[in-house]
Write a structure and sequence with these properties.
By secondary structure, the chain is mainly α. It has helices spanning 3-13, 18-24, 32-40, 48-58, 62-66.
Length: 126
């Protein structure tokens, strides 16, 4: 299903008219004709602020609107699955920062940067 179909389906599920949906978008409003063009499939690449407004007003994720996932639940409403005790963490989990290490013994010595000379002030003229 394309973007327009997903917007229309979510709007129908909430029983909203186009005008009511635009009102629910708040500060991220769009023109009624723009919404019609999106639903009709005439606007293939809407602006990011329009997608954000539609996602918030329809209570669906932008990924769902774009067809990247079939789960309409917004990320803020999803429960994060915790790994079972003793299970390996996912690759996307945050890993601890590596410890500070000593410089390698075979690494070349680095020289400290040269000090910058101060600019001279002009002597006062009498």
């Amino acid at each position: 299903m394309d973007l327009g179909g997903r917007v229309r389906e979510a709007r129908d599920r909430l029983r909203l008219s186009r005008e009511r949906l635009i009102e629910r978008m708040g500060d991220l409003r769009m023109d009624r004709n723009t919404l019609w063009h999106i639903e009709a499939g005439r606007t293939k690449n809407p602006r990011a602020d329009q997608l954000m407004g539609l996602g918030k007003a329809l209570n669906v994720s932008i990924d769902y609107l774009l067809g990247l996932t079939d789960d309409p639940t917004p990320p803020s409403c999803r429960r994060r699955k915790r790994p079972a005790a003793g299970a390996e963490p996912d690759a996307l989990d945050v890993q601890p920062a590596p410890r500070a290490t000593r410089p390698r013994e075979d690494a070349p010595e680095t020289q400290s940067p040269a000090k910058r000379q101060r600019s001279r002030k002009a002597a006062p003229v009498d």
